[in-house]
Design a protein that fits this description.
By secondary structure, the protein is α+β, with helices and mostly antiparallel strands. Among the domains are: 67 residues, OB fold (Dihydrolipoamide Acetyltransferase, E2P) (Beta Barrel); 302 residues, no CATH class; 52 residues, no CATH class; 82 residues, OB fold (Dihydrolipoamide Acetyltransferase, E2P) (Beta Barrel), CATH 2.40.50. It is built from 17 helices and 35 strands. The chain has a five-stranded mixed barrel. Strands 10-11-12-14-13 form a five-stranded mixed barrel. Strands 15-22-21-18-17 form a five-stranded mixed sheet. A hairpin with a 3-residue loop joins strand 17 and strand 18. The longest helix has 31 residues. It is globular. The two termini are 40 Å apart.
Length: 739
């Protein structure tokens, strides 16, 4: 492991103001105080002092201290007295519960606030100093008391009690010190080390990754006792890193025995029936990436007298995954498949995702089909949905379709002669759909994505820009069309379905972006609160050095798309109705959409509907599945960053072209143009001048030389160091030679 000393990013400490917006008296920390407030909070109603004494199970010697504490807290209005000897919560109790989000430096915040006794009135997450953290650690469910709210609206709090431990096991790295084995948690938000006491395997080495179980409490917050649960091995392995990500983000990755048994018992017989449209004579094809293993969508385009007919057939996962079953419960808890380079944590067992629900060529498969009729200009004129049976005629890759439609490769075209005309029609329809979507203002961000090629050992061989050709755009247009058509049906018929919504960006964030654009000298178009304005901005910087930064910053002004039963439209797509229908193999929301659509078709056909065991409301499902999606995105980004760090470790000393993606008073952040790798430049490495931070113009400027580093500037950097444990990369600027 590389041992070079890395530079430290210095941050300016902010003096905490003593003048506050609101301040509550802060009691000195003691066990009786914590026990008392926890008891009264959980009780939710005033208790007599004798009942308090009894429930706290105190010795007789504590009766006097308890009465003194009750009187003091009453005088401070943390408690209030009722009927002389009954005590409940007072106006300044400040008690709420939430989850600790701890920083590696020891302080933290409490998120997800709730209360059993009163509405939560705090708009910001309360701050916990290290001294007020108690024995709580990251992820713990805690009861806190807010004792102060600063002028900027930030509550400050102390931990009163731990309501539930967040994690019982942690991943970490072994450090063998003398006769002791220490484990440093891989997640740096846990600011302690773990001591292993039992006899350990002889092949355990310094730096190995392990999973340990935390055992009991510790008197010293810097240490915890633990027991070895699992030996993972060398952290340079992609599979070890995957397990570390799984542990860090609490990802379910193994199917339980009941789910496996239920999946194995599913019949693989495909039987035609009167309730299914037989579309096996329709020339469906799948178009996916070279490495795709599951094919959940197939398409066919026919030319008609008035325009085009598009078939979008999606694997009928709802046929196999019935509501309330063990298989359904497991899929719901996962919410989505999670994709890592060369690896996947599937939402469904492989027998379904890569087998019965994969639209492989030459095999009959159950599907759910959207049949959409368009005029010659791409306007939707009619829509029909049906359960179906299809048989895919061909598995295409995006590359092959590009060779046929864009490159006009004679040899490839000759090989796929029977598909040339349908693909030509597909190309024509997709072109019209793209034109209409652009016309209505759909925002087209151009943020390149990396493709990581792994070798047999799971190490990155190369990082390159993911290709996005016309074939990708064509399939995207057809999936968007199907998703919109289903959502329109939901809206027209007032169905209780799950929409994919994207709300308007906040005016404050747009103003921040406009101020930033002006600071870079960009002449922005007059502001309008519609998607087309964003498209104009992107078109204005297309092809310029500022394109990458503007795309990223404009994307940050956007709200996160999410799932909800209330349709408010999709701002980014400029769509009034949108949902997710096209990927039920890997997204649970799509499965719920299929079920809603099926119930509608059954009602229309006057088929009796059997009520089955999904107890979650649409609102609950939308909120939960949105959190699962965000967890998956975070985990995928984390895994990619880990592999990039290991890839860059062998390149220390090399130079790269980069764009400045962020500037603060202590560091410059850059992204390499060709490798899509991010890292930082500490101001301590800028030895040629004293640099002053100009927040208004997002730049650092040399006091004597006038040299500046501004957001969006292109820069040459040298790779200074790589911190494998913290997954951080450090660069230094390379001065350009003067001609």
């Amino acid at each position: 492991m590389h041992k070079k000393k890395r530079p430290h990013f210095k941050t300016k400490s902010k003096r905490r103001t003593r003048n506050t917006h609101k301040q509550f008296p802060k009691a000195k920390s003691n066990t009786l105080y914590h026990q008392l407030l926890t008891l009264l909070y959980k009780a939710g109603t005033p208790l007599h002092n004798k009942e308090i004494f009894r429930q706290l199970d105190l010795p007789l010697s504590s009766r006097k201290p308890l009465n003194k504490l009750l009187l003091r807290l009453t005088s401070e209005k943390i408690l209030k007295q009722k009927n002389k000897l009954e005590y409940g919560m007072g106006p300044k109790h400040g008690l709420v519960e939430g989850t600790v989000d701890q920083n590696a430096k020891g302080f933290g915040f409490v998120t997800g606030l709730s209360s059993r006794i009163a509405p939560v009135k705090y708009d910001r997450d309360p701050f916990l100093s290290p001294n007020n953290m108690g024995s709580a650690v990251h992820g713990d469910k805690v009861l806190i008391r807010v004792f102060k709210v600063t002028r900027d609206g930030r509550p400050e709090a102390e931990v009163i009690s731990i309501l539930g431990r967040g994690k019982e096991q942690l991943a970490g790295f072994v450090s063998i010190q003398s006769n002791q084995t220490i484990v440093y948690p891989e997640d740096t938000r846990y600011p302690f080390t773990i001591r292993l006491q039992e006899k350990l395997p002889a092949d355990l080495h310094d730096g190995d990754a392990v999973i340990v179980k935390l055992e009991g409490e510790s008197d010293d917050s810097r240490y915890q006792q633990g027991r070895l649960l699992e030996f993972l091995g060398n952290p340079d392995s992609v599979d070890v890193q995957m397990r570390l990500v799984i542990e860090k983000h609490n990802l379910p990755y193994q199917f339980n025995a009941k789910t496996i048994a239920q999946t194995e018992a599913i019949s693989d017989t495909i039987t035609p029936s009167k309730n299914r449209l037989d579309l096996r004579d329709i020339q469906h094809v799948t178009i996916d990436g070279e490495t795709a293993k599951d094919f959940d969508d197939a398409i066919c385009v026919q030319k008609t007298r008035n325009g085009y007919r598009l078939y979008v057939s999606i694997a009928d996962v709802s046929h196999y995954v019935q509501p309330g079953t063990e298989l359904d419960k497991e899929a719901y808890l996962r919410g989505t498949s999670i994709y890592f380079p060369g690896r996947v944590i599937p939402m469904l067992p492989e027998r379904l995702s890569n087998g019965l629900c994969s639209l492989v060529p030459g095999e009959d498969r159950y599907a759910f089909t959207a049949i959409l009729d368009f005029d010659k200009q791409g306007h939707l004129k009619n829509k029909k949905f049906a359960k179906s049976i299809i048989c895919s005629a061909q598995r295409f890759t995006y590359t092959t379709v590009r060779q046929i439609l864009t490159d006009h490769d004679l040899e490839v075209r000759r090989t796929h002669k029977e598909f040339l005309t349908p693909l030509k029609w597909a190309s024509e329809l997709a072109t019209e759909l793209m034109h209409l979507r652009k016309q209505r203002g759909s925002i087209g961000f151009t943020i390149p994505e990396p493709f990581m090629e792994l070798d047999d050992q799971g190490k990155i061989v190369t990082i390159s820009r993911t290709e996005r050709n016309f074939a990708h755009k064509m399939i995207e247009e057809f999936m968007l069309a199907a998703n919109e058509a289903v959502a329109e049906l939901f809206t027209e018929n007032h169905l209780d379905g799950l929409y994919r919504i994207h709300e308007k960006p906040s005016p404050e964030k747009i103003k921040e972006f406009i101020d930033f654009g002006h600071s870079l000298g960009i002449d922005l178009p007059p502001l309008r609160q519609d998607p087309d304005w964003f498209g104009q901005v992107l078109a204005q910087v297309k092809g310029s050095p500022k394109e990458y930064v503007i795309n990223n910053l404009l994307l940050r002004t956007m709200q996160q798309a999410r799932y909800d039963g209330k349709n408010v439209g999709h701002f980014g797509l400029a769509a009034t109705d949108y949902t997710h229908f096209t990927s039920p193999i890997r997204r649970y929301p799509d499965l719920t959409v299929h079920r809603t659509l099926q119930q509608f078709l059954q009602r229309s056909a006057k088929v009796k509907i059997k009520k089955k065991g999904n107890t979650h409301s649409i609102t609950e499902m939308g909120a939960f599945l949105s959190t699962r999606e965000r967890a998956a995105v975070t985990a995928e980004r984390d895994m990619n960053d880990r592999l990039k760090v290991r890839y860059m470790h062998s390149k220390i000393g090399e130079s790269f072209q980069a764009v400045i993606s962020g500037v603060t008073g202590s560091a410059i952040f850059v992204e390499l143009l060709d490798l899509f790798v991010s890292g930082g430049i500490s101001l301590t490495t800028l030895k040629d001048d004293y640099y002053i931070f100009d927040a208004k113009h997002h730049r650092l400027k040399g006091k004597h030389s006038g040299r500046s580093f501004q957001l969006g500037d292109l820069i040459t950097v040298g790779l200074l160091d790589v911190d494998l444990r913290r997954n951080r990369i450090y660069f230094s600027p390379i001065a350009e030679e003067k001609e």
